[in-house]
Amino acid sequence: MTFEEYAFARVSALLRLARLLTGDEHRAEDLVQDTLARAYARWGRISRMEQPDLYVRRMLVNAHHSWWRRRSSREVLVTAVSERPDTSDETAEVAERDALWQLVRALPSRQRTVIVLRYYEDLDDSTTAEILDCATGTVRTHAKRALAALRERLGRSAADPMGVF
Length: 165
Hints:
By secondary structure, the chain is an all-alpha fold. The protein has helices spanning 3-22, 25-41, 43-46, 52-69, 89-105, 109-120, 125-132, 136-154.
């Protein structure tokens, strides 16, 4: 597979992952562009790997973490003030999803990354661990802590079987 074929086939999935990690569409586009530029320079080696997509995802996650650490990229995101959701079910669902996403965005970077990879990207623990270059136990620990923090912020008990988490 050529780099152009790979990029064409995977750019939308990479953009979705980057947007979930960054919470900003424009920053996500820049992140994917930087990651694909780096992948292009190494494509000969990457394309011979057993799972090149995992490697590119790891590059994207690492680039996100590096970018986040740089002082110059720290921006204060201001959420728009919104009115109460309408009584229609669809609007309420969107508002609930947005409120939940705001809670996910408030998590520490590693916990947020694990939540995004496991629940938004639907990857298993071992694949998530491979992307993050850590042990599966570390992934489970980050997920457990993130879910506990989300439950606490939502005001639900950890034993609540009917809750979202």
